Amino acid sequence: MKNKYTYICLALLLIATTVSAIEYKEYKSKKKQIDYFQIEYSRNNNEIVIVSVSDKIVSAVTANKEDIQVKNNQVSSKGKLIFDDNNIYINHLTLSLDKISDYNISEIDNRITISFYTPLDSSKLARFKKGNRISVDKDIYVNQDEFIRGILLSVTGDITINGEVNKNVISLFGNINVVGDGVVRGDIASITGKVDIASSAIVYGEIYDHNKKGRALKHRLFRDKKDFDYDGYLSYNRVDGLALSAKVFHEDIDSLLPTLEAEIGIGFASNRGRYKFLLEQVLFREKAIAVGGTFYRQLLSDDDWLIGTDENTVFALFAKEDYKDYYETEGGSLYLKASPSNHFTD
User: Fold this and answer.
1) Which are the contacts of 111, defined by CB distance < 8 A and separation ≥ 6?
2) Which pLDDT does position 95 carry in this prediction?
3) How far is it, in rounded angstroms, from Cα 99 to Cα 210?
């Protein structure tokens, strides 16, 4: 009987394996866009490198930011033409700017890379470009209540945004201004121009220019993030009994003013006052260096990961069971924190 069941199981396993083999399909890439050209800018030496690969032949042109000249809708370096109204010139290679469908911005080791893409099937270029707004030399203005679904790109013109842009914004050799209640959901980049963000505007991505690292400029990254907040709290535990606390929190999102946190409370059963005061000030945005200090008297527990304060309050009040161990801490501290690299934390 056992042998019969063994054969049945082996037969089912064989059938399942066969079906799986039949249904298996080799992965095929669905890539619809290919690399068109790249512009790399080094913060360390102000070097600009433009690279393109055509038929496995690498074409590159190198220039320094100080040598870039913008005149008559053309960009040149030491008399050598790089951009005009329609094309980009990489040595003997001429690429049409009209074939740009999308781009991506990244930064590694103080080197900004803007990668431009074009459709694999050129007949579908119009579909990929739908929603984009690209101008070589003219200024671009996004009006209030206007929504741009694609990318914004200008080579020499300025870009002003008072509406909303869904993707990245680049003005290679012009200025970018996000004014009023303007919103940019992608990244912002400029090589020789200035990037100015109004305090009321919102940028969800990162900001890259020739002066500052992308993560250093954080302007209203989240619409619902508040500069000032406050809260009141009621809890119960076996040490303090019924406890009341109030908290005030202030953080300047642009790192111009110090971050302030103040919390005061009292435990009625222990007759102990509880408090915490924190002050922190960013000194250098570039490396995210900040100095701060705290002064406190708190009742803490290492069991917060096991059960939250709200749940434990319910059990302590109604089930007469407190699941946490507590300890008191009192004193103060001074600290210096920094994030010298994206690979490090505080």
Assistant:
1) 40, 41, 42, 43, 44
2) 87
3) 27
